[in-house]
């Protein structure tokens, strides 16, 4: 049974690897035996993450997922170093934030939502997933095996509950943006397309849809989010490690085109 989850001698690349969850994806894959390519915009940050990973021969790379040239250079470096690419975790994404909290509630309204923010989210969250899958997935199709994991969200499945962003004074502190759910829904649909397209080439493509992760948010938000979740809490950053290893490994060998929802039951009610 342990061998089913083993990633020994596999090469796995994680985009957005220096983020809160990205770091944990890297750690989980490394613990399962993979050589992990830690890919993000900042090379120094990637090197710091790679240095903390257990075992293996890990590679930090500066990668911009919306640049075909950056992705192609990274692909060539990975193949030169390891000879094969076996796992891609498409984790890089933008979760819309507004720098000035005083303006967040107003700017995040659908009626006022900036077109530039919408377009940037589409570029990173959708086009970035498309390009990374195209560049890193093509060698998988050539070699006849591989696993692509596209990270979406529960908000790709259900509409945001804007009431959880209302504070104790009854003030709407923020509206969850229209772009995040739209792009994450697109990721889920793209997964199905690519699973059908590359299935006969041995490349499995699945979605991981995580729920919200507790990360120093306002207490009222954590409380209200948790109250809507059957398990009664937000996720920790490590709660998705098992799911990533499962989807990357032979433990999910007959699974493709699926959406693995790990959300504490948020979408069950």
From TrEMBL:
Is Magnesium there in the keyword field? no
Q: Indicate what this protein is called per its UniProt record.
A: Short-chain dehydrogenase
Which keywords fit this entry according to its UniProt record?
Answer: Oxidoreductase
Q: Does the keyword Endoplasmic reticulum apply?
A: no
InterPro entries with a match to the protein in the record = NAD(P)-bd_dom_sf, SDR_fam
To which species is this protein native? Answer: Hymenobacter sedentarius
Cross-referenced Gene3D superfamilies: NAD(P)-binding Rossmann-like Domain
Superkingdom is Bacteria
Please provide, alphabetically and separated by semicolons, the GO molecular function terms listed in this UniProt record: oxidoreductase activity, acting on the CH-OH group of donors, NAD or NADP as acceptor
Which family is this protein grouped under? Answer: Belongs to the short-chain dehydrogenases/reductases (SDR) family.
Q: Which Pfam families does this chain map to?
A: adh_short_C2 (PF13561)
């Amino acid at each position: 049974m342990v061998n089913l989850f083993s990633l020994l001698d596999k090469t796995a690349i994680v985009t957005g690897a220096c983020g809160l969850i990205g770091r944990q994806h890297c750690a989980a894959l490394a613990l399962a035996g993979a050589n992990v390519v830690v890919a993000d915009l900042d090379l120094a940050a990637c090197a710091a993450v790679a240095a903390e990973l257990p075992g293996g021969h890990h590679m930090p790379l500066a990668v911009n997922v919306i640049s075909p040239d950056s992705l192609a250079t990274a692909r060539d470096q990975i193949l030169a170093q390891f000879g094969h690419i076996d796992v891609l975790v498409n984790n890089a994404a933008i979760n819309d934030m507004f720098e000035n909290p005083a303006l967040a509630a107003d700017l995040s309204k659908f009626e006022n939502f900036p077109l530039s923010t919408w377009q940037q989210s589409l570029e990173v969250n959708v086009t970035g997933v498309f390009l990374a899958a195209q560049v890193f997935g093509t060698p998988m199709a050539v070699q006849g095996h591989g696993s692509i994991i596209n990270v979406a969200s529960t908000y790709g499945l259900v509409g945001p509950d804007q009431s959880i962003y209302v504070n104790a004074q009854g003030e709407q502190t923020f509206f969850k943006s229209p772009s995040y759910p739209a792009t994450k829904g697109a990721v889920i649909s793209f997964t199905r397309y690519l699973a059908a397209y590359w299935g006969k080439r041995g490349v499995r493509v699945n979605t991981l849809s995580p729920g919200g992760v507790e990360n120093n948010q306002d207490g009222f938000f954590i409380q209200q989010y948790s109250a809507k979740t059957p398990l009664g809490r937000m996720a920790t950053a490590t709660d998705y490690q098992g799911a990533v290893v499962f989807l990357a490994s032979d433990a999910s060998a007959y699974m493709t085109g699926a959406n693995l929802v790990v959300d504490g039951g948020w979408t069950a009610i």
